[in-house]
Amino acid sequence: MAYKLNVNGKVLEADVEPDTPLLWTLRDTLGITGPKFGCGVAQCGACTVHIDGKATRSCVFPVSAVGAAQVTTIEAMENHPIGKKVQAAWMELDVAQCGYCQPGQIMAATALLAKTPKPTDADIDQAMTNICRCATYTRIRAAIKKASGQAVKA
Amino acid sequence: MTLELTGASRRDLLKASVVSGGLVLSFSIAPKAEAAETAGSQALNAYVRIAPNGLVTIMAKNPEIGQGVKTSLPMMIAEELDVAWENVRIEQADNDPKLFSRQFAGGSLATPMNWDDLRRVGAVARAMLVNAAATAWNCPAGECKTADGHVIHVSTGRKTPYGVLAGQCAGVAAPDPKTVPLKNPKDYKIIGKPKPQYDTKKIVTGAPLFGIDVRLPGMLYATYEKAPVFGAKVASADVDAAKAVKGVKKVFVVDGGTDLSGLLPGVAVVADSWWQAKKGRTALKTKWADHPTAKQNSALFDETAKKLAAGPAQKTLRKDGDPDAAVAGEAKKVEAAYFYPFLAHAPLEPQNTTAWFKDGKLEIWAPSQNPEPGRQLVAKTLGMKPDDITVHMTRCGGGFGRRLSNDYMVEAAWIARETGAPVKLLWSREDDMHHDFYRPAGYHFFSGGVDAKGNVVAWKDHFVTFGQGDQTSSSANIGPTEFPSRFVANFQLDQSTMPLGVPTGPMRAPGSNGIAFAMQSYIDELAHAAGADPLAFRKQLLGDKPMVGEGAGAYNAGRMQGVLAAVEKMSNWKDRAKLPAGTGMGVAFHFSHAGYFAEVVQATVNKATGAVKVDKVWLAADVGRQIVNPLGAMNQVQGAAIEGLSHALYQKITIVDGAAKQSNFGDYPLLRMAAAPPVEVQFVTTDYPPTGLGEPALPPVLPALTNAIFAATGKRIRSLPIDPSQLKA
Ligand code: FES
Ligand code: FES
What we know:
The complex is a heterodimer. Chain A is built from five helices and five strands; from the N terminus they run E-E-H-E-E-E-H-H-H-H. By secondary structure, chain A is α+β, with helices and mostly antiparallel strands. By secondary structure, chain B is of the alpha+beta class. Chain B folds into three domains: 41-202, 2-Layer Sandwich (Aldehyde Oxidoreductase, domain 4); 211-291 and 347-434, Aldehyde Oxidoreductase, domain 4 (2-Layer Sandwich), CATH 3.30.365; 312-342 and 439-727, Aldehyde Oxidoreductase, domain 4, CATH 3.30.365.10. In chain B, the strands form nine sheets. Chain B has a seven-stranded mixed β-sheet with strand order 12-13-10-20-17-18-19, sandwiched between helices. In chain B, strands 15, 16, 21, 22, 23 and 24 form a six-stranded mixed β-sheet that branches. In chain B, strands 3-4-5-6 form a four-stranded mixed β-sheet, with helices on one face. One FE2/S2 (inorganic) cluster (FES) sits between chains A (96-102, 132-134, 136) and B (66, 348, 398).
């Protein structure tokens, strides 16, 4: 079935079966490989994208459920007022180790800051449930604080 | 959206080599593919190219798995080349042992193995540029110095940029790497300075970097189904049902072999997209032939281990003095049995490889920690010449030792040749968890004793592990010099093995990641029996002789005392009695990968639920005189400590009927943000050559945590992962 999807401000067409997760539609059909595959069962968050601004695990989100919603991926974060601050903080603190989880982490952090501009540690604990297998949590926390203009202890 | 495919062209370069000691310096001339900004670059050797505008391209020789070598190894070259880091561009090398010798990620060896050679690579190139300038100025090279990518004539102040000089180095003989002068470390401008990872911008913008991101024209996607019981053959599969699924292009059974690290039997499904391949695979309803490993179970291993421990050991690995006689006297006797489980590596990027078989040649893009053995495996399995196979190294979404095995590479190569099109094979998370080379489980049965003065008078460890007779399974061994060997006069290390049909392999700090838990917990038990402060007890055990043993078994007790003293201070250990009830501090140390690490954990145990909260970790590390990249080093050490906590708190693979029971992060949980404590790190510098940091921070954190739990609750954790139900008050 041909779907018209709003992805990163463009209308893109994807001819896939209705049960195809958005993740595979983005990665394999549309060539948007920023969202990563880590588990396929909504456990790890590597595949996080924004659907109408809400952090969503795209590996379990069927393409047929997207409809007219705006899908935003890591590739568009440079143009996102909060996303670009988050990316800058990530670069400045050199958060990544392998980096594989980080697109998903940045998407989750951006969604958090959009809702809660000055998150507390408890807010971060609650919102940031993505797995980082390399365990860069200390720096993820610090980068979120930095991006939100709060004091950072490294 | 595709990875740059520039790698292959480097094979066509003209090459000449200078060999000096262990360092092979190959000279590549006239590269074909340059990025626009480095157009017209001149190669000075296999690692260094300089463009007329002064931009320097440095090759990153080793696989990047998150340990930071794509940045830290080029830093060594750039330092001695004497260029500004901003002007350095880093390019990932292909697997090419002729140009780059051993290219692998393992053993925390990238720094120690390359520290000398790569600095010399930079220094040789610098000397060539100096010679070129001196020739042009008609003066001795000794009158010139370099700074910031320029050669300067000291007395006249004349100055020429490297970009201008590089062209004059073509075909010029390189000086001897062995005698080329190296910088005084006090003049370092790059080494020892915090440098963000070179790829950081690409990472945060989601640029295609990883194996899973490779896309080729006309590429198809594959899944490969193997038996849950390792090595079982395909009995039946509904190939036609799978072929009927929309998008599925090809379905075939692969006979495979019996080598568990090679190509195993299975069914390949190739489709237009991975999702379609996965749906096709579900339709296969594969049945598997019987296999003897199906009789193996974790519960059975536990029982067998106990039986083996009760009998005479199969082998004594070391015996000093007479431990049995020594505990017979006044000593307080302590017996304890310790267990740690199988673990899966679970790097976040599932295993994958893209392969393209064309005109009798094979091109491979793989996230591998060990690409050359992968190439050899592919050559052997497919009956090809290694020279007809090119392996491009992609960034790896984690490694942890899993990608030292290239099973997924050979599967992709086979499937691609059968398919006749470029194919990306991608495993599911379930595939990854069911087909790992697991960290082997281990059993330690201790007996020993302490005297009234806090001396360990006897130490006996019957280590029950996996293997066939003396031959232990991969990473299931223990060394006769493992601490406290040689620190206790009456010491015995015994070993017995039981057979295992489940593949095992190295996982971050192999051996150490389980052994440290057992040893340092048992030391804590002895300290407790002696009524001693566990940290002071350890100092006493280490004693006042700085060096014990020599060669590979050398143990520098002085360096361990140094990190122990540091962590004592950092954690304010002496005031731990002031901690509230239910909160405790534990300490542990471990030597591995040439690094000395001591760690203190503070943990709080919830009385009602038994839930453990790690409040903080303090960590003191001694890896010699020079940290190459402090920013990366800190990240490695903090990550390793938190990973170790995750092992202790959550992780376990259970073998049921010859197969791994756990399948995804739901039943194999990893530590997440809410449980991640702050990790305070201090690097203690000592005048020894720099050694690696990827691994040695991990092992001590587990016993430091379980010892903290003992301090908090009086309950001793002797089996991992920690079971909160046992900690309820
Ligand atoms: S891949 Fe979607 S949550 Fe893990
Ligand atoms: S940086 Fe490797 S998984 Fe997060």
